[in-house]
Amino acid sequence: MNIEYNYCISGLQWTKHMDRRQKTPLLAECRVCAAALCRAVCIVCVVVVLQAPGAGEPNEEVVLFRTDHSGRAWPVNASSESLQPRGGRRKKQTIETHREGERVRYFQDDDNVDLKEMVKREKMGTAEDQNMLYSRMASKLMGKTDGDYHTLDDMFVSSAAQREHSGHDEERQRLRAIQEHRRLAGSMEKCPYCFDSPELSKHLIIAIGTKVYVCLPNCQSLAEGHCLIVPLQHHSAATALDEDIWTEIQMFRKALVKMFEDQDQDCVFLETHMNLKRRHHMIYECVPLPRELGDMAPIYFKKAIMESDEEWSMNKKLVDLSSKDIRRAVPKGLPYFSVDFGLQGGFAHVIENEHKFPHYFGKEIIGGMLDLEPRRWRKPIRENFDDQRKKVLQFSQWWKPFDCTRNDS
């Protein structure tokens, strides 16, 4: 499958990677429509997916979007102006910033940007964007000894007024959206937990709901009854889930608590949300514990969380989840670890430094309580098909009386 990224402006599609013979008629049409293209309004940029020859499937158009740190998706607009070619020596255009001694604008697009667009840019901006802007401005100021600049702010503002090449900012946003789309498509294609993915081990599934399913891990379990609650679609964290998905997760959670209570056991639910750029599939793990260890579990986890991560943190070290769930306790877009004890709530921790916080943090605490070997959670060994089959049959017998997906009429 070949993917080519196009602009759709005024009904004209212009492809960068065409054969020269195919470009010739389009070039003539582009010269005729050049004036119209310059005046065209911003249209949402789309991706045209070209199928392999002979595939017999229609081309697919995908809307390009960028996701901010809170998990909100924003569509990427096509270039509002024709993109000037790079290279060569061209005189930079300076924008009029003062009239009669008073400042009338700071940047070139001040007259075309409204408050809504400014709020959108502020929300979509990251520290990386600010560092890039700072470095670009600093490079413009190197070697300047003009005495008209009285302060550093004056130097930056005056340099910002120098106009960038037309359309380069939109092109930069478009390229970032393309990279984000490729990264997300690659991670979803190889995701071992998406229900439509070929990588999913479907023989480990115990129950399937409307939005969520329950399965067993394909590696050696920490304890008998160790299971996973996973959304059917690709979601990265509980803080970004819709209400119906979260409600169904809680329905499965209540059923599992009843099942393990019937066996005189407690259970602990774990979730770790790290490496936000990789967008790993959300996993809500359930690990049963003996009753005496289940009573001591809150003490173990509270002490471990207080001693983890950075000594000095910007966020609260330990977040109590006894009166509110994780969606109301931790803002969207932050890495976190959460643990719940049965139906009584638990604790959450906002991860400050992902390099000092292992992804197996919760399993390590449970492994220490159960006196297991470290390889069980550090590098778990994948079980063969026969062992997985025995594990599924045993769990299915336990689950059958408490199956919340059956409609008993």
In short:
The protein is 35% helix and 18% strand. The protein contains 12 helices and 16 strands.
Report on the structure:
- Helix content is 35%, strand content 18%.
- It is of the alpha+beta class and 409 residues long.
- The chain has an eight-stranded antiparallel beta sheet, sandwiched between helices. The chain has a four-stranded antiparallel beta sheet with strand order 2-1-3-4, with no helix packed on it. A two-stranded antiparallel sheet has the order 5-6.
- Helix 8 (291-306) crosses helix 10.
Q: Fraction of residues in helices?
A: 25-40%
Radius of gyration over C-alpha positions, nearest whole angstrom:
28 Å
Task: Give the topology string: H per helix, E per strand.
Answer: EEHHEEEEEEHHHHEEEHEEHEHEEHHH
Q: What best-fitting shape do the alpha-carbon axes yield?
A: elongated
Strand order in the largest sheet: 9-10-11-13-12-15-16-14
Number of strands: 16
What average pLDDT do the residues reach? 76
Taking pLDDT < 50 over at least 5 consecutive residues as the criterion, the unreliable ranges are: 1-44, 48-56
Structure classification: alpha+beta
Q: What's the number of helices? A: 12
**Major β-sheet annotation:** 8 strands, antiparallel
**What portion of the residues fall into strands of 2 or more residues?**
15-25%
Cα separation of the termini:
48 Å
